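Field: COMPLEX_INPUT
Field: COMPONENT_COUNT = two
Field: RESIDUE_TOTAL = 559
Field: MODE = joint
Values follow.
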Amino acid sequence: MPQSRYLIASAIVILLLALLPLSGSRYAIDLTTEVLIYALFALSLNVLIGFTGNISFGHAAYFAIGGYGCAILLTTYNWPLAASLPAAVVLAGLVAAVVGYFCVRLTQIYFAMLTLAFAMLVWGVAFKWKEVTGGDDGFTGIKMPELLTSPVAYFYFTLAMVTVGVAALWVICHSAFGLTLVAVRENSVRAGFIGIDTRRMRWAAFTVAGAFGGLAGALFGMYHRGMYIENAFWTESANVLIMVLLGGIYSFIGPIIGAAVLHLLQTFTNQYTPYWPTVLGLILLVIVMVLPDGLIGLVSRVRARWGRA
Amino acid sequence: MTSMLSIQGLWKSFEGFVATRDVSFELAAGETHAVIGPNGAGKTTFFNLITGHLRPTKGSVAFEGRDLVGLPPQKIVRLGLARSFQRINIYPRLSVFENVQVALIAHEGQQWNLFRPGRSLYREGTAELLDLVGLTREAEETAGELSYGKQKQLELAIALAAKPRLLLLDEPTAGMSPQETAETIASVRDIVKARGLTLLFTEHDMSVVFGIAERISVLHHGEIIASGAPDAVRNDPEVKRVYLGDGSHG
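Field: COMPLEX_OUTPUT
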């Protein structure tokens, strides 16, 4: 059964990650924490892109809402983490539900533009609502529980939360709901004629994507001990979109691979040159020209060729 | 005779072009009824109006006494009226099996189930439907890679998954070889009989039409110019003039 093979492979990956702090490298721990967070972020966006066929240009909005929400509840309102984190996720999901309600009335480029517009609105709120969000100074000095102040502890916390988030997304994407989303993506007219309310399905996918994007954002804010308006900016939405495309939209784990590869590339590139955006442009070029189904697609193509040879 | 589908004064115009002109139509429960007419006569538009794909300019469509005008396709399907499409309308990247499975998931209202694995649901029902249309061997193939004729069979299986009482088939044998056509028609006839379905279909192949239809309606320029038993329609002078020609058909 492939199902059990996936489970074993995931268990091994999680175990290896859990052993990482033994290396004693603070750098490796920090980098991996970031990759984990981006992996969840990219995966959440792919519920919308890969599974439902709706390209959002504004996914950073929910990341930011989760991040700011959790930060503000922890710090300004002194809520415990056990309440702040779920509340931030719910908040991101709720805002996604409201925004999605309007966005799913449109399709394709109009849908994408509307998601972008709403995301700019969220950015505007973060920028202008200075007394709550800190405006362009950012929201800094997030109060963290004592237990999670060390990088290693926070790494384990992130690993646990991302594992839960990825597992939940796995279940959702492979559920009857997930299969129906794929049918909507493949042929929304036909989906209507088997009794599916395609608009409501897309709305639900939008909400799920927003909520899990919010979880990633909350983890990100706490990791950096601050949220900044750049985290809500449209370039962040583009970045996560590229992660998803790079990994491959038609597989579940594609976005995880894409997030890891892109974030590591960015980190290493920045050590040698300030021209990351140029490199990013080249990566995008390669994706569009030769990797339409991402790295995962490349792997399966290579495998198919070897298998037949 | 009770009417399952009752259509009164149905009109549809597209920017001045009248595609459906004052069509009134009654379909009795259990009947097998063909709608024929030359290309562009408005057959597909007629189906689209019934199934909610298009909204009529005026007129009424009632299914088992319930007004369908203004209802979206997904609501109409759930009332027990399913259709296939003239142009292939499947999920090309899903497997043949999943194409039917997802239709069953929708029919059973499981599309909101976020927990049960989709691939484990209604496997038996899916296998049965694939068997019924002769696609058992192709179950794991990618739907978009099937031959045209087999994709049409898949269309039929997807429509049947909605467990309809009224089945609308839009040119079920279009693009098929003569042999595929004969097989498809035989299987449609068996299915309709076995499930007690009412069947409304459009078809260009006159041998198919006169082979299985109990009643025939002829559409011409969006109007029904004749309706009745096959022999009566065949001998109708107006029909002969506009459509069947000098008798070289059928």
